Amino acid sequence: MQRAFKVTLIPNHNQQVLINKTIGCARYVYNRFLALKQELYATEQKTLNYNACSQQLTILKKEIEWLKEVDKFALQNSLKNLETAYKNFFTDLKKSKNKKGVGFPRFKKN
């Protein structure tokens, strides 16, 4: 027999601010590296893998102070999500003949 518990989170003001900062920073990192990958491919026909992006993220965190305020794992997970989006796109592109399927990774909005 399996049981499930429904939990409602009620964060205080400081926790809400931190959650919103984390979400915003993760979105910024995702969009920044998506643009970087697109630009690099357009100019040099090369791409970056997760490890190269992670090294670039370390450098970026030194340049942009507010990226240090959030949990590093959230930022790394946004890079992993971007890598997964690319893998899913190319896997679907190889498998399906029709043009409808997993689309090219898109920029995240608010």
Automatic annotation (TrEMBL):
Pfam families per record: HTH_OrfB_IS605
All copies of domain Transposase putative helix-turn-helix, residue ranges: 1-46
Family matches, as InterPro entries: Transposase_put_HTH (IPR021027)
Descriptive protein name: Putative transposase
Source organism of the structure: Nostoc sphaeroides CCNUC1
